Amino acid sequence: MPVGDDSSGMTTTMRAAVCVRAGGPEFLEIRELPVPAVREGWSLVRVMGAGLNRSELRTRQGHSPGVRFPRVLGIECVGVVAASTDPSLPQGTTVAAVMGEMGRQFDGGYAEYALLPDALLMPVTTTLPWEVLAALPETYLTAQGALDALGIRPGSRLLIRGGTSSGGMAAATIAHGHGVEVAATTRRPGKADALASAGVDHVLFDAGGPPRTPWSAGPSHVLDLVGGSAVVDSLRLVHRGGTVCVAGSLSGWLIRAFEPIAMIPSGTRLTAFHSDDTSGSAGAAVLERVVRNVEAGVYRPNIDRVVGLDDVAAAHRYMEDNRAAGKVVMLPDGAPSALRTGPSATQHVGHEDAQRRQQNRHQDHR
Ligand SMILES: NC(=O)c1ccc[n+]([C@@H]2O[C@H](COP(=O)([O-])OP(=O)(O)OC[C@H]3O[C@@H](n4cnc5c(N)ncnc54)[C@H](OP(=O)(O)O)[C@@H]3O)[C@@H](O)[C@H]2O)c1
Predict the structure, then answer these.
(1) Cβ(249) – ligand 1 distance below 6 Å
(2) Ligand 1, atom 44: closest residue by C-alpha
(3) Cβ(162) to ligand 1 under 6 A?
């Protein structure tokens, strides 16, 4: 909790996980910082939760061009408006925010407060507990956007490469909810149960090359989160005339020696998705739909674990070791005791657990 108060009773300092320089998780340090002052066009958000993302690991490692340290990382958060220059965002409004250079050009979600551009805020109406809401924005907006780009429909055969990533599991959950047959890859057989729980019909082992799919005609659609040169064999794997969407770069950004005419079979489609295209007002309606589906139990939030702010460095280590299967969520106020886990064991949080805690939603922060 913030420790300083000014004479008006407003908190003046906050805790944040600051990446002090590019490198390992040890460069994420818990520091006390001033609560940012609101300025024109920006809102102060009391962060109630933040999903952790692979891209934050990459930024921490120094791979995000233009990022200067020290920086509070975090490309997404959920919370409540503490003060805003936008009259349509009154104090207490529940909001989510993703991307827009958050956690890169300006401080992001690994903190008790974040000063964010008004245009980035997506108001959300929900009674979901914070750890569940925090698991959704970046991951589900990306998964939904990539599936829309693919054009899946009931009866499609979807292969997800990088299936145990939080994006992959969200895509499996959404596709499963829409009557799509889903196959998804992992390099660790021990994560098969997590994939099955997310709605994957066929768990495939990724041994480094193109996976063997259960369909003689091949998948009709491939969501490729592995990226890099894996994309070339995704284009070969997909049924001719099918679609490959590249939305991840787990193995790298570039396709070496890419020759479209040689590498894309005639009639097969290659597309991509970037979540910056669903930040702010562009994503608000999509997020609202996702939230309704999670509330209704149609979509599973696929949370691997919930940690407190103090555990962010350990959580980065855990993700970097590829031990997670699904979303790692940070709550600045600390994980509810029923969910708190050490970095040695994976705990999957079911929708039922989340529903039980709905009544405990932090109404007092509104
Ligand atoms: N397009 C967009 O706007 C957008 C938005 C969000 C994320 N992304 C991208 O989507 C990808 C997933 O992000 P995330 O945050 O969901 O990841 P994440 O939850 O951290 O997923 C990590 C999992 O990916 C698998 N993995 C790691 N390295 C791999 C490799 N070289 N080859 C194959 N699998 C590998 C591992 O699973 P196993 O050990 O089970 O194999 C690991 O547990 C990232 O590349 C991220 O940059 C893109």
Answers:
(1) yes
(2) 248
(3) yes
Percent of the chain residues topping a pLDDT of 70: 89
Protein residue with its CA nearest to atom 27 in ligand 1 = 250
* Chain CA centroid to CA 253, Å: 18
Q: What is the identity of the amino acid at 222?
A: V
Q: How many angstroms separate the Cα of 119 from the Cα of each of 132, 282, 284?
A: 23, 10, 11
Q: Which residues contact 53 (CB under 8 A, 6 or more apart)?
A: 75, 76, 138, 139, 166
Burial of 250 (0-12, 13-18, 19+ CB in 10 A): middle
Q: Tokens representing 181?
A: 């047959």
Determine whether the shortest distance from the Cβ of 57 to ligand 1 is under 6 A.
no
Helix (H) or strand (E) holding 197: helix 192-198
Give pLDDT, residue 229.
Answer: 84
pLDDT tens string 199-253: 999 999 999 989 999 999 999 999 999 999 899 999 999 999 999 999 999 999 9
* Ligand 1 contact via 289 beta carbon (within 6 Å): no
Paired with 146 in beta bridges are: none
CB 110 within 8 A of CB 268: no
pTM of the predicted protein model: 0.91
187 close to ligand 1 (CB < 6 Angstrom):
yes
Tokens of 85: 């220059």
Ligand 1 atom nearest the C-alpha of 191 is: 40
User: Residue 250 and residue 206: Cα distance in Å, rounded?
Assistant: 13
Mutate to test the pocket of ligand 1, among 322, 323, 328 (most ligand atoms within 8 A of CB): 322
Per DSSP (E only), the strands in 262-302 are 269-272
**Are 211 and 205 contacting, i.e. CB atoms less than 8 angstroms apart?**
yes
CA–CA separation, 58 vs 63, rounded Å? 5
322 lines ligand 1 (CB under 6 A): yes
Question: Which pLDDT does position 42 carry in this prediction?
Answer: 98
Residues 6+ apart with CB under 8 A from 5: 11, 12
